[in-house]
Write a structure and sequence with these properties.
It contains 12 helices and 13 strands. The chain has 338 residues and is an alpha/beta fold. The protein has 2 domains: 143 residues, NAD(P)-binding Rossmann-like Domain (Rossmann fold, 3-Layer(aba) Sandwich), CATH 3.40.50.720; 177 residues, Dihydrodipicolinate Reductase, domain 2. The strands form 2 sheets. It has a 7-stranded mixed sheet. Strands 3-2-1-4-5-6 form a 6-stranded parallel sheet, with helices on both faces. Helix 2 links the parallel strand 2 and strand 3. Helix 6 packs across helix 7 and helix 7 crosses helix 11. The longest helix is centred in the last third of the chain and has 20 residues. It is globular. It starts with a strand and ends with a helix.
Length: 338
């Protein structure tokens, strides 16, 4: 299978190497809004003995022929690039989000529902072993009835200032992974949210109408409660966890030997390994599994595991949280769904 890659930033470069290591992938054609970046990545990959070549433009990439395309470009370009792939009936994998806003996301979701070409959206936590184990336990009833979930996403270091104006904000860019994971693990929908945000770090967050730290209380159907917290300044390391608590047991996702959870208790020597520094370290195995499944989806061997419609549901929760923190009141999902 000959693949295309659009976007050569940090995650695009990692995906390129993952894709070229997967069974059934014979080569990779790469393009970027800055052609010199595509050329540079293709040269690096060839020097590593991998079958990669650069295309000067997106149109050239398709003209040379690809069986499927992976989109890791800047967020504001996602929706347009997905539509271009669908115009050519080329299966597409796109990192979240689908678009920066709800209208753009709805448009992609509605169109993808009417065509046979798969559009798989990247929520890699669905492929993490811990999240999968928690989902299995919940679906099998091993934890009893659920009463509380606690989700955390903490970046060790903030993104560059130029990233913030096009990121969509903390809830849409960062916590949306937690919102998707909560829905996926429990099989339940969020009903209402109450969220707050704060800025104590660099001024560029407030200048970009964003926050660097946020917290939300979510009510899911059936009365299940969840808390979601996020920050761009988690000095202990990259922290992504989910606590799933039930009447008969609990599971804690992300509490491995590299979780950045230094104990305040005397004599405790855990964690025992250096903490994760970035999401690329924390979820590399999940990214490999996710992209391997996309190859199966693109080849028609598996159903689409994460559609644009599911990404839209997570976006509704993010939108509700952002509206709540701006208006200092609870917001229902029905309100933002319209």
């Amino acid at each position: 299978m000959q693949l295309g890659l659009i976007g050569t930033g940090r995650i695009g470069s990692m995906h390129a190497r993952i894709l070229l290591g997967l069974d059934g992938v014979t080569g990779l054609r790469i393009t970027d809004a800055l052609p010199e970046r595509a050329q540079r990545l293709a040269s690096e990959l060839r020097a590593e003995g991998l079958a990669a070549e650069a295309a000067g433009t997106e149109a050239e990439l398709y003209d040379r022929g690809v069986d499927a395309v992976v989109i890791t470009a800047a967020t504001h370009a996602h929706a347009t690039l997905i539509h271009h792939a669908l115009d050519r009936a080329v299966p597409v994998f796109c990192e979240k989000p689908v678009a920066l806003d709800m209208p753009g996301t709805r448009e992609v979701a509605e169109r993808s529902d009417t065509v046979s070409t798969p559009v798989q959206i990247g929520f890699q936590r669905r492929y993490d072993a811990g999240y999968r184990a928690a989902r299995d336990a919940v679906r099998e009833g091993r934890l009893g009835w659920l009463h509380t979930l606690r989700a955390v996403t903490g970046d060790q270091d903030p993104p560059p200032a130029e990233y913030i104006p096009t990121s969509g904000g903390l809830f849409r860019d960062c916590s949306i992974h937690d919102f998707d994971a909560l829905r996926w693990v429990t099989g339940r929908e969020v009903v209402s949210v109450y969220a707050q945000g704060a800025n104590q770090g660099a001024a560029f967050f407030a200048d970009g109408d964003d926050i660097d730290t946020g917290a939300a209380l979510l009510e899911l159907d059936g009365g299940l409660l969840a808390t979601v917290s996020a920050t761009r300044y988690n000095g202990a390391g990259h922290d992504v966890r989910l606590e799933v608590c039930g009447s008969q047991g609990a599971l804690f996702v992300g509490n491995d030997e590299r979780a950045p959870l230094p104990s305040a208790e005397e004599g405790v020597r855990w964690p025992s390994a250096p903490p994760y520094r970035t999401f690329l370290e924390r979820f590399r195995d999940a990214y490999v599994a996710e992209l391997a499944e996309f190859i199966e989806v693109a080849g028609g061997h598996r159903p689409n595991p994460c559609t644009a419609a599911e990404a839209l549901e997570a976006l509704y929760v993010a939108e509700a949280c952002d509206l709540s923190r701006r208006t200092a009141r609870p917001v229902t999902i029905a309100e933002v769904r319209g």
